[in-house]
Specification:
about 140 residues, alpha+beta
Length: about 140
């Protein structure tokens, strides 16, 4: 999964990325790029409904912000500001039936509002990750 994440980050020109899969009702970090070590510990286990990844999983829809550092929606957890990421998006990874099995997130170290087309492309990338969730 690490190689796939690195490819996705390259195609999107992103600086960071994460893949979480749901295990026993919790998002478990399976791959990451550009995430500081202290943050890896924080995002290693994410409750459904918490932070961008948790909200994307809970809502079964993309969650994004053009500026994590200035976000006031309450969707962004305080630790996210320590990543240095500014623009970010997290999308659900869905199995063939549409059930959420994880999340894919990418971010950049500049303001960036992910367009509908970019988000749709990221959802397509996430769909390609789904087969690995059920070997």
């Amino acid at each position: 999964m690490q190689a796939e994440l690195e490819d996705i980050i390259g195609r999107f020109g992103a600086d960071t990325g994460t893949i979480h899969l749901i295990e026993d009702g919790i998002l478990i970090l399976k791959a990451h790029v550009g995430v500081p070590p202290q943050i890896v510990q924080i995002v290693g286990r994410v409750p459904i409904g918490k932070g961008m990844a948790g909200l994307a999983a809970e809502r079964n829809e993309p969650v994004s912000t053009c500026n994590i550092q200035a976000d006031s929606t309450g969707d962004i957890r305080p630790g996210a500001k320590q990543t240095g990421v500014i623009g970010a998006v997290a999308v659900p990874i869905r199995d063939a039936s549409g059930r959420v099995v994880g999340t894919l997130g990418i971010g950049v170290r500049r303001e960036h509002d992910y367009s509908g087309a970019e988000t749709a492309r990221l959802l397509e990338e996430a769909a390609l990750l789904a087969p690995w969730t059920h070997p």
